[in-house]
């Protein structure tokens, strides 16, 4: 195995890890704010990819431009899901029931996509699809670089938003101590809604990034939700930096394992990591005390 | 029987902790606490809010694992054992905000308690007549036998407190730890609970009670331990504790 | 000295008017027995009544669903831990049975038992990992487990046949199709009866009371001496074993396995939906749910063929159940009856009087005549 092949695998792993990190951040937001395990996250990812593909097919514009529509749209959908569906659940059984509810949403999305667009595999024809950049002897496709750039930029924005804005403060307060947040006058319901919207917006961006170089089909989301779930558990449920680190590490591991094992078997790395984490360090590797409580 | 119990009290402590410490992300809730509680007595554990009493309780009963130190029950270590093992070893406990199983009936709430885990016993019907009679006995004892078939969530808070107590007693513990038994209940009920504690103590059960209601503590307890900032600062008979300047300082924050 | 400063809950010493004994009309016992007998008779007579082999095979499928969701309910119903990945054990039972017959030449039904035993052994470490952390992680592991098995069974071509699938030697090679269905119909019915009996025994046992207390408040339960970790694991393994039996019998009946179906998340979600729809706290809840959802699914398949529509319908129905009737049909109907007998304030938790009535009622409608399952709500 040549060094350049190895380097290429590492670079591709990091690029993939960036996308994982963005999506895992979204999942972490839902879980942090409301203890909701959002199974439909990956379904929305695929939905966004389909929208990018459809807009490209109908209007012939670059899929990246679809972000202008999908990001605000998904934000609103996220707020609505939180306000209309999730908030109806009883707090006592919220985590379990939210899983079922979002699972139901995922089924509806998958079924709807299959209904509208059939199960045929789709791919956006891009003029720059096969272009690649030579980085230190490794061939890196331009589309993957764009996808990574998009993910990294969004993640950075998300981080700044959470860290430095009033809304971000309110959101973090809600995550850490909902009752206390309410006492100091934060409208936690509204904050939770916006947090949900933000989470879903990451799915919109991720989906667009995904559509650049992936073949999409309605049941694709199952291939994503498993690894993403594994990432947030390994990262310590509820910790965004933890999830990001876990995403990068596992992304690189997957990419490296692809060389000897092939793509299918390499995916098992996520599940093995998940299993080992729960066996030996159930609070996750980078997270706080949140996990133990749920 | 009484004499034997008194003998026991001098021979071994009922419950003892040695240098127990628990910190939560930089905040030390229990700070090297070494405490003894006496066999056959009603022990009180008091202290200002946030002095670590409940954390101490949770560490002793295994709900939280202490960072360091040890817990001994009748001279046998129970440090870091799971809560259910500690319960089956003979320590029953109530919770600060009383906890019952809301969607089970009062009777079913009592039938949960597990004393023996042998398969034969566990597969026997929960409603075996002997168990039902025993449960009814405890319900009569705490005075809610008329509610046997009601769902626990339909009970008033005071009734739930009594139900929780009956549930703990159903496990036939030798030592009963109560976390604020008088919290949030009316004076009449406080009287009822105090009487119960006295009677049960006379029957040989050891009590360890965390309580804010000083009247209750002073009238009920034989021995009081005062907690401040995660460790005991004084202990002794209630009359002595009441006059201890360190205790007043801790409470009034002078 | 300061006295109580902790703001406890508001004191409301209203005395609940308690019923002196469980209110059970005197006729109720006989109604229940009659319904049980009638229900059982209907189930047993179905193969004779069924107009054609197709309907009969639909009956087999529905009984299979009933076995699976009753099996699922050992975990979900008793402990409240909802597994979305029980299709893993369905697939393992099916593939286990098939592979043991093909590779080790075991007799069909011996292979079926051995496969269930192997599944129990696999379920132990998985259960330990999944139950280490409460709630969320359990669900995540359950989904991850079925996804990983799907990957493995698709990729490991040498053993599992990969995506081409696997044919299972028939246990009764001489039987004609209708006869084959009829035999398996009764086998599934027997398996279901065993599963229901075991569930019933646990339900009324001390062990069952302990499991149900875990569902209500796990910490509290543990503080009362319930070894929650072990009990949850026992329930999980039992649940896996019954689902595995269901899968193995499916393999012997259907004779053709395909990883995408065997390890599909959808099968797992059917189990949850059926149990939840009927009522997870009730012995016959999953069976009732299986009859309703199973008939609807079979009807959809007949009317609309292989479209994505069943996904949407399943999704919407699941959402409706979760949001509006998380306790299921049986408690909803029961509440209706209790209200009419002046017991509105206190709901009784005695064994379900109306289960059998319900079951019998829907058993009559087994040949699917319901137009649309997606929008159905409580009557």
TrEMBL record, chain A:
Keyword field contains Cell inner membrane: no
GO molecular function, one term: transmembrane transporter activity
Database matches in Pfam families: BPD_transp_2
Keywords: Amino-acid transport, Cell membrane, Membrane, Transmembrane, Transmembrane helix, Transport
Keyword Lipid metabolism (UniProt): no
GO cellular component, one term: plasma membrane
Entry protein name: Branched-chain amino acid ABC transporter permease
Taxonomic lineage of the native organism: Bacteria, Bacillati, Actinomycetota, Actinomycetes, Micrococcales
Classification via CDD domains: TM_PBP1_LivH_like
GO biological process: amino acid transport
Family: Belongs to the binding-protein-dependent transport system permease family. LivHM subfamily.
Intracellular or extracellular location(s): Cell membrane
Major localization class: membrane
InterPro entries in the record: ABC_transp_permease, BCAA_transport_permease
Transmembrane segments: 6-29, 36-55, 67-86, 98-118, 138-162, 191-212, 224-250, 262-280
Organism: Labedella populi
Membrane topology: Multi-pass membrane protein
